[in-house]
Design brief:
By secondary structure, the protein is of the alpha/beta class. It has 2 domains: 142 residues, 3-Layer(aba) Sandwich (Rossmann fold), CATH 3.40.50; 92 residues, Four Helix Bundle (Hemerythrin (Met), subunit A), CATH 1.20.120. Helix content is 53%, strand content 9%. It is globular and about 55 Å long.
Length: 275
């Protein structure tokens, strides 16, 4: 899958033109490893706009199977996934490269939080760089320019958009991700997956199951992080730490309050998708 990349960041730029520095990207391939369908849709839409071929898989074991038969030039991987997470996948990939004497494939980590501990985990696993979700179109293009083979893209040409701590407008999302046409499908997928997690979260909290509660909270916080819902994201991560420490019963009131606020945010995203 491929199409011409966006050469600039302003509304009104010629979306069909392709700058000389990135024309060679049409010959390259990216592997995207993430278990969230909406994020895969979002990343896929942006990669298509940049003219890059790509494959998608939902966990590390499947990614390693693809790498057995397919050459890729760069890997984007979520850190936390079922079956085999991004850290374990990267460690295994580095072992295989060392045994075979093959060229090192850059691995760029996606993480919901980006603190010292997360960076240390990425480094220990053999990852090359790390990005906190949500990743904007400008940030994606910059990291591709830094790590794909060929000439680098000047950072001066790629301004980073400030993340505002408020619910995003449809126009802002289009500006951030450079894929306005794909937004309705992305939003619908995100809301659908989040509704499944909300239902599963309710069941887990009713039964006071800490592991399942944390798992579904993590996925829900990952959903709101796509679009920069910073206050909800911060509350979610704090609550996950508290449940891991004290259990569900001690924080049940906070779980229910956050769940209600997440429902309100998802209703807002549904309206954006229908608008």
């Amino acid at each position: 899958m491929s199409s011409g990349p966006i050469p600039g960041d302003r509304a009104g730029d010629d979306l069909g033109a392709q700058p000389p520095l990135t024309r060679h990207w049409r010959e390259l391939k990216v592997l995207l490893v993430d278990d969230h369908p909406a994020y895969c849709l979002l990343m896929g839409a942006m990669l298509e706009r940049l003219g890059l071929a790509f494959e998608v898989c939902v966990q590390g074991q499947a990614a390693l199977a693809i790498l057995d038969v397919t050459r890729v030039d760069l890997i984007f991987s979520d850190c936390r996934m079922p079956v085999l997470d991004g850290y374990a996948m990267t460690r295994e990939l580095r072992c295989r490269e060392q045994r075979a004497g093959t060229e090192r494939v850059p691995v760029i980590a996606f993480t919901g939080t980006l603190g010292t501990r997360e960076i240390e985990q990425c480094q220990a696993a053999g990852m090359d760089a790390w990005l906190a979700k949500p990743v904007t179109f400008q940030q994606l293009r910059q990291v591709l320019g830094d790590w794909l083979p060929g000439p680098r893209i000047s950072e001066a040409a790629q301004p980073v958009m400030a993340v505002e701590e408020r619910w995003p407008s449809r126009a802002r999302l289009g500006q951030m991700f450079g894929c306005t046409e794909a937004l309705p499908g992305i939003l619908a997928s995100l809301v659908h997956e989040a509704e499944l997690d909300l239902h599963a979260l309710a069941q887990a909290t009713d039964c006071l199951q800490a592991q399942a509660t944390v798992e579904h909270l993590h996925r829900l916080i990952g959903s709101v992080a796509f679009f920069g819902a910073t206050p909800l994201e911060v509350r979610g991560h704090q609550l996950i730490e508290a449940i891991n420490r004290d259990g569900v019963a001690a924080h049940l009131e906070h779980v229910l309050a956050l769940r209600g606020d997440l429902i309100g945010y998802l209703k807002y995203l549904s309206l954006l998708g229908n608008g």
